[in-house]
């Protein structure tokens, strides 16, 4: 039951990751277009320039949820890397409950009014020719942190499954990744 639930949360996080990847490609295309127009044709569009940081914001805000699912967030912890998988799972579960949930809920509830106010006042860019509907990008803050709550539940369940021994811990540390890479290279060069 817990493994099936974990797979469901992982699929949800993969959808967020796919959406984030699409937005990233759109951002790259936008930057490319803006650079071509500015440097080759000496023209520019304020709205397209503002769209760059709007899209960048969406990539960062939504990418956090997918990064948590992939356990790709940055850790600077010499002790954590040396612990057994069950102890790592306990630390991760405690971290979700004591840090991720409270901070995420705080951001959600404090940013809803921020987005609502932008919507009610029909906030637009202060620059002439800039983007309208500023509330859309401000609404991404509570939406993305709500998605982070959901993926945090999935992360908690994954670590609970590891603690219960229902599946193995996947080590994503730099040391482990370097070791895997070294083994792959050795295997390829040894086959020749």
UniProtKB/TrEMBL annotation:
The chain crosses the membrane at residues 12-33, 53-68, 89-115, 135-157. Its main location: membrane. It is a multi-pass membrane protein. The keyword Methyltransferase does not apply. InterPro entries: DctQ, TRAP_DctQ. Keywords: Cell inner membrane, Cell membrane, Membrane, Transmembrane, Transmembrane helix, Transport. It is found in: Cell inner membrane. Residues 27-160 form the Tripartite ATP-independent periplasmic transporters DctQ component domain. Belongs to the TRAP transporter small permease family. This is C4-dicarboxylate ABC transporter permease. It comes from Malaciobacter canalis. The lineage of its organism: Bacteria, Pseudomonadati, Campylobacterota, Epsilonproteobacteria, Campylobacterales.
